[in-house]
Amino acid sequence: PLNTPVKRDDIYVLRDAEKAQKIPDFFVPKTMHNHGNYIISLGNLCRWLAQQAENLGVEIYPGFAAQEALFDENGVVRGIVTGDLGVDREGNPKEGLYTPGMELRAKYTLFAEGCRGHIGKQLLKRFKLDDEADVQHYAIGLKEIWEVDPAKHEQGLVVHTAGWPLDDDNPGGSFLYHLENNQVVVGLIIDLSYSNPYLSPFDEFQRYKHHPVVKQYLEGGKRISYGARAIAKGGLNSLPKMVFPGGALIGCDLGTLNFAKIKGSHPAMKSGVL
């Protein structure tokens, strides 16, 4: 999955809908430089990692979500229960279709549900893991993949911006990455602490794409996929305790983020390795 090394790294402050100031490299903190990194598709990486895991004997159950944690008589986590299948919108069993959830028991269970996982929240409360941590902060990230004109494509280009269409009261930032095969990933991250009750993250994303810094790459292109997700962004001070009897929280369930490097996937994976 490592096919696109970073070749150029640009950071802009967007002043308004038309103007932008490019930050000279010598003003950019060393931690924010991406020289030596790769631009990847996280989906492709996860699929590749799944193949490596299965080759080592790991069993993966796609389509079966964990419903709740299992506890023994001493309050130690002993695994999870998957959700029931074949139920109606009220949770009642459908005749001939109902299949109860399975118990998956383990000596040690790692919870990697993503940002604000429902079991993770229960474990935080039950074991008081976040009693000594600051309150977690959250954002919403919107992302699209575009197929662009080959003449406008610069494979290996990384662009980050701050400023317009957001401001100090409604903070956030953006990214634009040039992948292989004339594809560009573009996204906007908006803190969920925004003070303007009329602000629409989706509409702000549409405005952002019309800025000349972004438009120059997307114009004439075609959007081929899109998505959005919640992001934990409290950083080091908001990290709860990681381990508890019988298991641990990892990744975004834990709230890992290297704020100085604008990296979330890296510490999420590292938490699993550790």
From TrEMBL:
Domain ETF-QO/FixC ubiquinone-binding: 138-231
Cofactors (names): FAD; [4Fe-4S] cluster
Database matches in InterPro entries: ETF-QO, ETF-QO/FixC_UQ-bd, FAD/NAD-bd_sf
Co-factor binding details: Binds 1 [4Fe-4S] cluster.
KW Iron (keyword) present: yes
Reaction catalysis annotation: a ubiquinone + reduced [electron-transfer flavoprotein] = a ubiquinol + oxidized [electron-transfer flavoprotein] + H(+)
A GO term for molecular function: electron-transferring-flavoprotein dehydrogenase activity
EC supergroup of this enzyme: oxidoreductase
Superkingdom of source: Bacteria
E.C. number(s) listed in UniProt: 1.5.5.1
Keywords: Electron transport, FAD, Flavoprotein, Iron, Iron-sulfur, Metal-binding, Oxidoreductase, Transport, Ubiquinone
Purpose: Accepts electrons from ETF and reduces ubiquinone.
Protein name: Electron transfer flavoprotein-ubiquinone oxidoreductase
